[in-house]
Specification:
Order of helices and strands: HEHHEHHHHHEHHHEHHEEEEHEHHEEHEE
Structural class: mainly alpha
Number of helices: 17
Length: 470
């Protein structure tokens, strides 16, 4: 490189504090800059300050947007995550960067002790991870990344290397996590579902004795307002659940917290459809995976659909009952292609009705019921709108023929992402930024929506300029 390329520009003799004639960079340039700032060389951090490691479902969403900037980096993002997979098939929710100080994030590697406590489950020896998981968006992300540059993907053997790991991941969930015996996957910690602080967890969490406050230090409060974050009581329960799971050697079984969650299972179903596509690309049989996706959808409807709520609810496996709280998780199954038509129509009415207010009182779909007693427009997952769930709902609305609503939601996501400086989450009424700004998946999914709108069928089929690729 020419050495002059790195020189700072010469001072002009005066400083321009504000010049309205200088336009702001286009939204796609700003979004790409966020992903560039978070790139470590092998993966992308969600937020340099608040989340300085690699997160599982963050990386899947980031790869979906990153494929529009660099398909190679998007493939590398997923490959780095999959390289940390345990021998039992689980993909851990955090892959720790050894160059980051231990006190930069809690729980840190010395809490999880993955290589020692997870030895029986086949935790990797050469990298430190957490021992819990996150929603299985990965096969869907891998298929979409492949579609961004099939030639590069085939030349690198991307899908051929990813497929056995993704298949093992799904086997782990289906065989080890059917704790309710009804065919659905259970999460054993709120962090696994990804919507950490949802009021949907309050009832099952009430059984958990919190860890003493003196036994941990919350690094998250160094980067966000306490009013926006989980309470110390909730955090103490999270720590207790994680420590108990670790002390059992990360062995799966019904404990104090086991919940069948509609979004987690819907994303597994979407990824089963994507795995069928990947299998077909590799010349393997695909029908078995499609049939499994259909069976899982039937189980989802049978176990989690609540007609009186007009949506899916979470099931408390230990108590054997549905949890009567409306969270955005119960709307996410709208992205499934074989959802019964009447259920899809009901979900659309619910998302646009008084409980979630889309197209009326809210700019984006909130994470929790606007009319619920626990609603808080700023506190983590207890009301604010998140960009990944709204991206999923935009896909679902489009899939089920709600083009006008999907277009309006797309515009709302793009406007709010840009206006909030790619915030982690926002007030659903005003769009006010909450949490971190310059957030990875917000920028990535902005990039995805800025590109040609897909004709979405729930398994990653896209129509780009008239050419159907699937």
């Amino acid at each position: 490189m020419d050495s002059t390329a790195q020189r700072a520009p010469r001072p002009t003799g005066r400083t321009v504090a504000y010049d309205p004639s200088i336009p702001a960079p286009p939204l796609h340039v700003r979004a790409a800059a966020v992903l560039e700032a978070g790139w470590t060389g092998t993966s992308t951090v969600p937020s340099r300050g608040l989340y300085p490691h690699q997160w599982s479902w963050d990386s899947a969403f980031i790869a979906i947007g990153l494929r529009h900037v660099s398909p190679l980096r998007a493939q590398t993002e997923l490959e780095t995550l999959l390289a940390a997979q345990w021998a039992d098939g689980r993909i851990p929710h955090i892959v720790f960067n050894p160059s980051v100080p231990l006190d930069a994030y809690f729980p840190s590697p010395d809490f999880w002790r993955s290589s020692a406590a997870g030895r029986a489950a086949g935790a990797p020896r050469t990298v430190q991870t957490s021992g819990i998981v996150q929603p299985p968006v990965h096969a869907l992300a891998a298929w979409l990344v492949h579609l961004a540059d099939p030639g590069l993907s085939r030349a690198r053997g991307f899908l051929a290397r990813a497929y056995p790991r993704l298949a093992a991941w799904h086997r782990y969930l289906l065989h080890r996590r059917d704790l309710g015996g009804g065919g659905l996957v259970s999460v054993v910690h709120p962090w696994e579902q990804g919507m950490d602080n949802s009021p949907c967890w309050d009832r099952p969490l009430s059984r958990v004795t919190p860890a003493p406050a003196r036994s941990f230090r919350r690094a998250d409060l160094d980067h966000g307002s306490p009013e926006d974050r989980p309470t110390d009581l909730d955090y103490g329960r999270y720590v207790r659940l994680a420590a108990d799971y670790r002390d059992r050697g990360y062995a799966d079984g019904p404990g104090d917290f086991a919940v069948e969650d509609p979004a987690f299972n819907a994303l597994l179903i979407a990824s089963e459809y994507a795995l069928a596509r990947i299998a077909g690309e590799l010349g393997a049989a695909a029908p078995a995976r499609q049939h499994r996706a259909e069976r899982l959808t039937a189980a989802l409807v049978e176990r989690l659909w609540e007609p009186s709520a007009g949506m899916f609810l979470c099931r408390d496996v230990r108590a054997g009952e549905l949890i009567p709280e409306r969270g955005v998780s119960g709307l996410v199954p709208l992205l499934l292609p074989n959802l019964p038509r009447d259920l899809a129509a009901t979900l659309v009415r619910t998302v646009c009705g008084p409980h979630f207010g889309l197209g009326g009182t809210t700019r984006l779909v909130p994470s929790y019921d606007l009319l619920g007693d626990a609603f808080d427009p700023h506190r983590y997952w207890r009301g604010p709108a998140w960009f990944n769930t709204n991206w999923l709902l935009e896909r679902g609305l489009r899939l089920h023929g709600e083009r006008g609503r999907a277009d309006a939601l797309r515009r709302g996501i793009l406007h709010t992402a840009g206006a909030s400086d790619f915030a982690e989450y926002v007030d659903p009424h005003t769009g006010q930024a909450c949490g971190a700004t310059g957030f990875g998946w917000t920028a990535a999914l902005t990039l995805d929506l800025l590109h040609d709108r897909p004709a979405w069928d729930g398994s990653g089929v896209t129509a780009i300029k008239g050419e159907v690729r699937g």
